[in-house]
User: Which sequence fits this backbone?
DNA sequence: CATGATTGTTAGCCAAGGCTAAACTGTTTG
DNA sequence: CAAACAGTTTAGCCTTGGCTAACAATCATG
């Protein structure tokens, strides 16, 4: 029953990089990320629906499915959820529309997305990489950071 | 409720912001994000275990649970998964250790995390915000962008 | 050294977000 | 105008990642 436990011990903090954040703060970090994950997908759908409406005049489930690379059944299920959340109005077998709340969310998401995307390009990231990274990052950037990104981009472009 | 469709219609692309990306590219963006989500949590656990080992000499389930703000049962279940994936070795009721592969993952994650964190600080983001944002962003930053962030940070600090 | 506190595990529940297969609707066209 | 096809929905399944409650092991300590 002896403890093993490689005594790799006593690692002096000075040699082992940044210290652990205080417990409370650390916990808050993870919680924030978990919360973001809950809304992330919803926002992506709403944003995409908004984009389809703006660019195509309609948003069909099939388009969403192919753009998201997901099955139509998955989209259908998600639409019901969006409906229940009061973000879209849908009549069976017809195009979707956003409720007022949905439009607000789409607008906000699109704005965030664009700030991040333009920021990455201003930083010097290749366009197609920037698109991919922006898609992943947009939901994890605080308002504070977003504002800084925007300022940075503007300075770069002047 | 029936005022459908602000006829914002026929939106000329020039007025409606960036065009939709070509379908294939668009689909790849979402796929990349979905894939990131699958490994994200795993990496967070492994990274945290690595940090606990470095700073404390041991990684107990209770510590992980409180730092992640998650129940012990959740941690216990996750540890079995990490075990199955060959990332940690665990004997019941004992501290965890990382396998060689786990250590590699922890190292890589930690490095990414630090690059993003230091980049955000160099950009001018407040420390506690930077920590939160870094936690969320780290899994969505491509190698290309990461390299650019690192260069930027170094220039800033010179 | 017994016992209570702490820590870890197991069982069983739930929601989210995927999937395929099958059923249904709407549209196009022969 | 009927049949075929494209689009949509439903049913039912799976995995992940949470949770609580009950139980088990370990550890401190009176």
Assistant:
């Amino acid at each position: 029953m002896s403890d093993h436990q490689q005594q790799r011990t006593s690692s002096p903090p000075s040699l082992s990089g940044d210290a652990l954040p205080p417990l409370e703060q650390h916990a808050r970090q993870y919680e924030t990320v978990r919360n973001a994950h809950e809304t992330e997908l919803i926002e992506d759908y709403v944003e995409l629906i908004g984009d389809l409406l703006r660019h195509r005049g309609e948003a069909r489930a099939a388009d969403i499915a192919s753009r998201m690379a997901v099955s139509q059944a998955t989209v259908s299920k998600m639409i019901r959820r969006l409906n229940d959340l009061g973000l879209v109005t849908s009549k069976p077998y017809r195009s979707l529309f956003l409720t007022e709340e949905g439009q607000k969310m789409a607008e906000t998401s699109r704005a965030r997305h664009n700030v991040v995307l333009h920021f990455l390009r201003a930083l010097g990231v290749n366009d197609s990489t920037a698109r991919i990274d922006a898609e992943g990052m947009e939901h994890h950037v605080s308002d504070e950071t977003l504002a800084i990104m925007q300022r940075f981009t503007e300075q770069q472009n002047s």
